[in-house]
Amino acid sequence: xxxxxxxxxxxxxxxxxLVAGLGNLLLKDDGVxxxxxxxxxxxxxxxxxxxxxxxxxxxxxxxxxxxxxxxAIDAMQADGPPGTVYRFGVxxxxxxxxxxxxxxxxLLATIHFLTSAHRPEIVVLGVQPETIDTGxxxxxxxxxxxxxxxxxxxxxxxxxxx
Length: 162
Fold this sequence. Notes:
The protein is an alpha/beta fold. Helix content is 33%, strand content 20%.
């Protein structure tokens, strides 16, 4: 008579995390996602990629397919004071009349290209802009919010990787 021993559970694979900086770097606060990712790129743990996606969301499709979880950082009009940081699931943008940026809409459209077997969890950190105008510098209120944005992103990544 053969006896089967239950298989020991193997080590659980940590999720692959993509931190995507969205926005147009040439339009001041619209580029806050790119500025935030630049601040995050150094010191990301293995399995986490912080990438400047900018406005080329479709060009990042291979990274979106790679990721198990995506943190998108972008400017977002939500009628709060400039520099306010919002956190929400990407599905909330689809279901709510939030004046989200076109980049989140592009991200939603891109997700539809994926098979239903691979739909990553997506969280958005939206930042209320002060100025969307020609220029590469962030407005003072959004620049002052950058450390909070980076800290929030690090907290989300740490939680996901725990």
